[in-house]
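A brief tutorial aside. Many learners find it easier to grasp structure tokens once they have seen a single protein encoded end to end. The record that follows does exactly this for C-terminal binding protein. Read the sequence first, then the structure, and try to relate runs of similar tokens to stretches of the chain.
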Amino acid sequence: MTSTRTRILITDSDFGSTEIEQRIADAHDVELTLAQCRTEDDVLRAAEGMDGLVVQYAPITRRVIEGLPGLKAIGRYGVGVDTVDVEAATDHGVAVSNVPDYGVDDVSDHAIALAIALGRGLPDLDRGVREGRNALHSVGPLHRFSSQRFGVVGLGLIGAATAAKAKALGYTVAGYDPLRTPGTTTDEGVAVLTFEELLATSDVVSLHVPLNRHTHHLINAGTLGLFKPGATLVNTCRGGVVDTAALVEALRDGRIGAAGLDVFEEEPLPLTSPLLGLDRVLLTPHAAWYTEESSVELKRRTVENVIDVCQGRTPRNILNPDVLAARPVR
């Protein structure tokens, strides 16, 4: 006899525990399985017969989706879905969900923390104390935040939260967003500039955009050349938004002054990366999203979205809602 119980696979996870996901699955009579898939073939083997996938980093490509004809839903732990072929999923009637607002406070806090640490020269000052030397001469010139402009690229939920926090610290805040008209002001009082003007006039440039074909290497040799001399780049969105080789070159030749990076084109960051040998660079391991509160919310909502689709309900978050139009929902 064939079981009608919903079956969901967690394709991969580095969270260390799936207790929260399992508790939610048990409450909805869902069979939950954990794998650690790294390749398309890994996913195809582990996901055979599954109704839904919960994904962290595993590649969910067109080949994978076409190889899983019974698949109904894909949920990603996080905001970005660049590892999921949403177009292919839509073509095959598979709902794709994310959790777009779970880490707004956490990521914006982290972006501000990176900017403050570099703006006050904290990495170099800390290193100097540990080495028994006065490093004050090596971090200058430092400037008051109130004398500087904080530029935000991408004025979505996280970008807007970052802008508000920067403004509260005394920065003059400006933003760029392709969906907003330069020369206007947001309801929160952020002046909207062109991309080029923002780069040329900001002392800090903080990135808050998704990774897609339009934003891949948005920060490259050409756009880095537009930066205000001595400016700081902060990236807490996606590593592929920045051309790493171009950034390294710009840091080495002094075209920009510092960089605070939580995300990288290759993760984890290789120990051979030239970024590791540069001064005025502050690196964290894709940790901006993390607090205990955000971790619980992320796990719960990711699994709930997938279960809802698989059991005929409309999920809280869905990127391609048209796929549900042909299905009975309640």
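Self-check: The radius of gyration is 22 Å. If you spotted this yourself, you are ready for the next section.
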